[in-house]
Specification:
It is a single chain. This protein is of the alpha/beta class. The protein folds into three domains: about 60 residues, no CATH class; about 170 residues, Rossmann fold, CATH 3.40.50; about 70 residues, Ubiquitin-like (UB roll), CATH 3.10.20. It contains ten helices and 13 strands. Strands 1, 2, 3, 4, 5, 6, 7 and 8 form an eight-stranded mixed beta sheet that branches. The chain has a five-stranded mixed beta sheet with strand order 10-9-13-11-12. A hairpin with a 2-residue loop joins strand 6 and strand 7. Helix 1 packs antiparallel against helix 2, helix 2 runs antiparallel to helix 3 and helix 6 runs parallel beside helix 7. The structure holds guanosine-5'-triphosphate and magnesium ion (MG). The site of magnesium ion has 4 residues, from helix 4.
């Protein structure tokens, strides 16, 4: 990873990862090119941005001449992250979303129950996370909107039926269908530094029907076949502790920390945290609230952990989960 990428650049790159249309991609790439620090260490990255920009411009021109219907799905983003739940038919995707949110997607013992993507909100320790239930992946007929939804997600949940002997092969097919379209279930977020066409999306393997005694063997088969890096969680709708463990694992997959802001002389509102990426700084936090705030930022004061009680820190200070921050 090249050094000295600024918070403004990192924000532009995150916007690019989420960009839904060629026009949005062109805008974000232009911004990235403008903001990237110019030195030897970023040469490869600059080249990758430039080549992606020409691809995005060409795509923009093609779509302007002949608009491609149905490649983009307009689902508004809500909460601190968007997590798309994918998997083979009958893998337990809708059951998982039903158990973690207030939504009531149709759950049924036969395949192809879900026909349309369905967004729902998962509350987790003061935060709200958007989960999107999707129709089963059919590797030979992956609709463009589905690919776009997965590529631009903040995280993925791959539902894996722990009780089905076909689950290893079917889940391999799902992962390969996306890999063939330059989209990876990964343990990190971002792009291949040399080819921005390859998107890595942080993923979690959710093993459903984990009340089956042999789920572990099936998962092993799957992992061996693919050398699949993401973490996993065992889920069974009948066991509440696995449901809450799944919610926690989904939040972990987003790689966020929760921080609370306060105004001078006032108490912090500890019920509604803001979130920034793990490793994010005081400046990243300010930037998320408003660009002007980040520009005019002088310092911050910090509470929350036992070893700092109003301690003054600079804009590069890395925040931790639970920090209470006063921006000055
Ligand atoms: N016991 C148990 N049954 C589950 C669990 N997860 C899913 N099921 C059952 O598995 C079947 C399929 O679940 P769905 O959630 O509808 O699966 P899906 O992946 O959404 O299926 P499609 O929409 O058709 O792709 C249903 O009969 C569920 O009740 C689980 O954790 N435990
Ligand atoms: Mg379903």
């Amino acid at each position: 990873m090249p050094a000295n990428l600024t918070p403004m650049y990192r924000k532009a790159e995150r916007d690019f990862r989420r960009a839904q249309t060629p026009a949005e991609r062109v805008e974000c790439l232009q911004r990235m090119l403008q903001l990237i620090p110019r030195h030897k260490g970023t040469d490869k990255l600059q080249a990758a941005i430039k080549s992606s920009l020409s691809e995005a411009r060409a795509e923009l021109q093609r779509t302007q001449n002949a608009p491609k219907a149905g490649s983009v799905l307009r689902i508004a983003r809500h909460g601190c992250g968007r997590v798309v739940v994918v998997g083979a038919a009958n893998a337990g995707k809708s059951q998982l979303v039903a158990a973690l949110t207030n939504a009531a997607p149709e759950v049924a013992p036969f395949p192809f129950t879900t026909r349309e993507p369905l967004p729902a909100m998962m509350p987790w320790e003061g935060t709200q996370i958007q989960l999107i239930d999707t129709p089963p992946v059919v590797p030979d007929a992956l609709p463009p909107w589905m690919l776009n939804l997965v590529r631009t997600a903040d995280a993925l949940v791959l539902a894996f039926d722990g009780a089905d002997d076909d689950a290893p092969a079917q889940s391999c097919d799902v992962v390969r269908a996306f890999a063939e379209r330059r989209t990876r279930f990964s343990s990190r977020a971002g792009f291949d530094p040399e080819d921005f066409g390859v998107a890595h999306v942080p993923a979690l393997l959710a093993v459903t029907r984990a009340n089956d005694p042999d789920w572990n063997l099936r998962v092993e088969l799957f992992r061996e076949e693919l050398r699949f890096p993401p973490a996993q969680v065992a889920f069974d709708v009948g066991q509440p502790d696995t449901v809450s463990a799944t919610a926690a694992a989904i939040f972990d997959t987003l790689q966020l920390v929760r921080v609370f802001t306060k105004r001078p002389g006032e108490a912090a509102d500890l019920t509604s945290p803001l979130t920034i990426g793990v490793g994010g700084t005081v400046e990243d936090l300010a930037l998320q609230i408003h660009e002007d705030l980040a520009r005019d930022l002088r310092h911050a004061r910090l509470w929350g952990r036992s070893d700092h009680d109003g301690q003054v820190v600079g804009r590069d200070y890395v925040l931790h989960d639970g920090d209470i921050v006063e921006l000055h």
